[in-house]
Design brief:
CATH topology of the domain at 64-202: Mago nashi protein
Order of helices and strands: HEEEEHEEHH
Strand order of the largest sheet: 4-3-2-1-5-6
Shape: elongated
Largest sheet: 6 strands, antiparallel
Structural class: alpha+beta
Distance between the termini: 76 Å
Strand content: 15-25%
CATH class of the domain at 64-202: Alpha Beta
Number of helices: 4
Length: about 210
Amino acid sequence: MKYSKNSMSRFVPILLVIVITIVAVGVVIAIGRALMGGGNSDTADTQSSVDAGRAALLSSDVSRSVRLTVRGPIVADEKFRSYQITISPSSRIMTTYEGYLSNALESKKFDNNFTAYEELIYALDKRKMMDGRALTEEQNDLRGVCASGRIYEFETLVNGETLKKLWTSDCDGSKGSALANVSEILDMFLQQIPDGNKMAQTVGLGQQSTFFSL
C-alpha cells in the first residue's frame, strides 16, 4: 500500500506533536520527583536519626546507659569546668571535673534498679532526648564551639561505649544536632542525683532559672 505525499504531510506533524507531548510529560514527572525527593531528604534523615536514637534510648538491658555531659566556657585550663552524669540500670554516677584533661573534683555514686531506669528512659524519650538532625563530621566537631557559653551532650551507651550522641549549646550560631528542650533533659538527669544541682553549682554550672527550647 502506497501513501500519498498529502497523507505523509498530514501524518508527520501529528507524530511530532505526540513525541513532544510524551517528552514534556516525562520532563514534568522527573522535575516533580526531584523536587519532592529534595524537599523530603532532610526530613527523612531526621526521622531515621530519631528512630535509631529512640531504639537505643529505650533499650533497658544491663549493658545500656544514658549520659549527660555539660561543658563550661572555654577559659584557662585552671578555670575550665565540666560535669557528667551517667545512669544505668544498676547505678547513678555524677562527677565534676576541672581542666581540659578532666581531672575529677568530686564524684558521687548511687545504686539503681531496672524499674527506676525504665521510668527514666521513657521520661527522657517523652522529652525527645534522642530527637536530632543529621550533621556532617565537620559540623559535629566540638573543638572551639560556643567559647563563651555551655555545651550539652546527650548520649546513649552500650557497655560504656557511645552508641549515639547529640549535642547543642547556649550559643545562637551553634545549635548542634539535638532538638530536645535542654532545660527538661538537664532537670531529669540532675533529679537522679541527690544534691545534683548543688554539685553542678560548685563548678559554676548549676541549672539556669530560665532556658531555651530548641
